Amino acid sequence: MELKILLKVFSENNSGIVFEKSSHAIQVPNVGDKVYDPLFPELKEVKQIIYNYNCKYIFIILDKKEVEDKELEGPIQEKAKETNWEVSKSVIK
Hints:
The chain is mainly β. It has one domain (2-87). The protein is built from 2 helices and 7 strands; from the N terminus they run ββββββααβ. It has helices at 69-73, 75-82, and strands at residues 2-11, 14-23, 34-37, 40-52, 57-62, 65-66, 86-87. The chain is globular and about 40 Å long. The relative contact order is 0.32. The model has no long low-confidence stretch (mean pLDDT 87).
């Protein structure tokens, strides 16, 4: 099964964007585990895991990340693209 890692990035005045990154992993993390990725400097906690056997995905929902309004408009999206994240099309928001 493929892992789909989801991270919501928001600001005080914006409901935010959900980014998604696909990965193949030998082991599925547990709720409470910490995940590192170059998109964010701090470790992000796994908040929820959803197994979807119909589409063969395991959704890994990370703790939300708050940024300043100006960062949400461009810089975070550019960095996301550079680190292989994309805007999520998943129904989980």
